[in-house]
Amino acid sequence: MVADCDWSDLPQELVISIANRIVLMEDFTAFGAVCKSWRSAATKEIFTSPLTHQVPFIMHPVKDAAGMLEFYSFKKDKFLMINLPEGEDEVCGSCLGWLITKRGDSKFNLLHPLNHSRIKFPSFRDSKENLSPLIIMSNFDFQKRFVLSSSPSWTCDYTIMVQSNSRLLAFCKPTEHKYWTGIVLEEEARDIICYKGRFYAVSGDGSVWVCDTENPKQAKAKVVVPAVPGEVLPSALRRVKLVESAGDLLVVFTNGFRDDLPSPKFRVFKVPLRDGKWHLDLEVKDLGNRTLFLGRDSPSFSIVSSDCSGFKPNCIYFSFALYGVFSVFHMEDGRAEEHFWSHYWRKPSYWIQPSF
């Protein structure tokens, strides 16, 4: 039997030596969660593996266990449990390696799961002292979407956008703005994304808006791409996701987020931002050496498959809405296969893009 020991008593040079030998980001996350002294060694300078080639993983908040998070490692094909010191925070989103958390009714923050940096959101009232969209969102059961223009780990010049209900967006620059600015869309948005520094939203019919966020006093959204005509896409595929891949903005039409579908289908198109004209030549039938990750509760993204072992190229990874089934859709033959089941049914799941 191994006697109990205090891991925080290990010499710091030994802790740093251990950190230098870690390869996977999920192991680095677990390493930093051991204790305060180990967390101090879990720094960007210590972590020596190439961050651009880190493998994405899935995170689930653990039911009835404050501060406990479960990670699924595709590399190891197993689940890892991690305890965050910020146990009172409820995880309600993720983007670019950061978690969006809520404490109480309306205190939202950005939280980094590795170094535990915390960034508070601005006031929850607008410049006219009206309740901001975040307050409305925290009091009702709307689907929440959060998107960052860039990672706060890299720059202070970033914007965060929130979709608090089907037509209402809000944005702010936490380092500059004291309030949130709202944008009301003419139609229901199904997804939002930041692409080349600008925020875009898409509706179920393929209409795409671009949001002007440079001047909060003149914030607005305009349609830059109209609805997809019926001859290009049948009306059955009206669940949509926006994702950037190889420099292109793609829209993925699917019926694949329902639990009662025996054969989910996906069709991928390049968004015609240049001229706004949909046609069949825009369809992407082969992703090549790339893999798409469609987030139900977090933004979608893509990777170079050969850089991240464990993922299949020319495929789309996605999850069903309620029952925790994570599946893989093969673009080559239209075949879908289950990859793993999460035992947290009806709970949010978040793709985590490892980064500092």
TrEMBL record:
Residues in F-box domain copies:
7-47
Name the gene. Answer: LOC103342861
Write down the superkingdom of origin.
Answer: Eukaryota
Protein name in UniProt: F-box protein At2g17036-like
* Domain called KIB1-4 beta-propeller: residue spans: 71-319
Q: Name one Pfam family in it.
A: F-box
